């Protein structure tokens, strides 16, 4: 690979990452919007916003997926923790309205 090919590869790869970042943000938005549905169901079922069993299930599943896909388990777990925290915060915000 010469310098010109390397520059093209770098730019192409960065463009793809930018597109993926937008897709990830769209998915995070959709995931967060589901908080309203989840909250409504939890209220009817008498379930607390913080559902430790569900969170344990999610983290176990994420660890398995990380191993299968050879992704750093600790980093992926941190990302999922951020997402679950966002969902809980959204539910709390909805309750305050």
UniProtKB/TrEMBL annotation:
InterPro entries registered for this protein in UniProt: Chorismate_II_sf, Chorismate_mutase-related, Chorismate_mutase_arc, CM_dom_sf, CM_II_prokaryot
Keyword Isomerase found: yes
Annotated EC: 5.4.99.5
Domain (Chorismate mutase) ranges: 4-95
Class of enzymatic activity (EC top level): isomerase
Swiss-Prot/TrEMBL keywords: Coiled coil, Isomerase
Any Pfam family: CM_2
A biological process from GO: chorismate metabolic process
Protein name: Chorismate mutase
Organism: Methanobacterium spitsbergense
